[in-house]
Amino acid sequence: GQQLNQSPQSMFIQEGEDVSMNCTSSSIFNTWLWYKQDPGEGPVLLIALYKAGELTSNGRLTAQFGITRKDSFLNISASIPSDVGIYFCAGQLEGGGSNYKLTFGKGTLLTVNP
Amino acid sequence: GAGVSQSPSNKVTEKGKDVELRCDPISGHTALYWYRQRLGQGLEFLIYFQGNSAPDKSGLPSDRFSAERTGESVSTLTIQRTQQEDSAVYLCASGRGPEETQYFGPGTRLLVL
Questions:
Q1: Chain A: residue nearest B91 by CA?
Q2: Are B25 and B94 in contact (CB under 8 A)?
Q3: Which residues of A fall within a CB distance of 8 Å from B101?
């Protein structure tokens, strides 16, 4: 089955630092999504990417859809304590009639030290 | 509230017992999904409902797992004869359609002793 490799698994940074995480896949995706999950909550969509090469920002967050359609990265600039949580990438496969299915990475646990 | 709600929020059960988990999607959302999240892992797709179409059950891990949905409203996920490896967070999500943004509920944390 499809697999998403997400790295790093965890990060411990100082407030104000920039953060970068990425996902790679063995399959081509037509959509890349980045979610954040706070403790005890469900994932919340941060950014959605629909075109190869697309670069999209949402406040301090920036994400890109790789040219090969097999990878994506998420950057967080000037981190703040409320950025703490688990960040997941997710991909939707191209065509096949099952493009509602999301394949998730294992997540990146971000800890921000004030 | 306007979001996806799930109940119970936590469930502790003994091995071999049956459990039923409930999801109330956002009103008007035709698509509904169930996912399983094991500790330290990403989300695994379990089942998908879209309107009155036959559900996609391809992600259900065994025949002990089943789910129903009443029209375009409430869904229940049932796990029969629970096993310790069933311990996980079970997340429900709903969307306006099959390729639309999925909005997640807070999940049900299941612990099988």
A1: A42
A2: yes
A3: 45, 48
Q: How far apart are CA A50 and CA A60, in angstroms?
A: 20
For A39-81, write each residue's pLDDT tens digit.
Answer: 889 999 999 999 999 999 999 999 999 999 999 999 999 999 9
Identity of residue B98: P
By the CB < 8 Å criterion, does A60 face chain B? no
**Residues in A 9-38 with any Cβ partner in B closer than 8 A:** 31
Residue-wise pLDDT for B60-91, tens only, equals 999 999 999 988 889 999 999 999 999 999 99
Helix (H) or strand (E) holding B77: strand B75-79
Contacts of B50 in chain A (CB under 8 A): 100
Contact (Cβ atoms closer than 8 angstroms) between residue A52 and residue A65: yes
Nearest residue to A4 via CA among A108, A83, A99, A95: A108
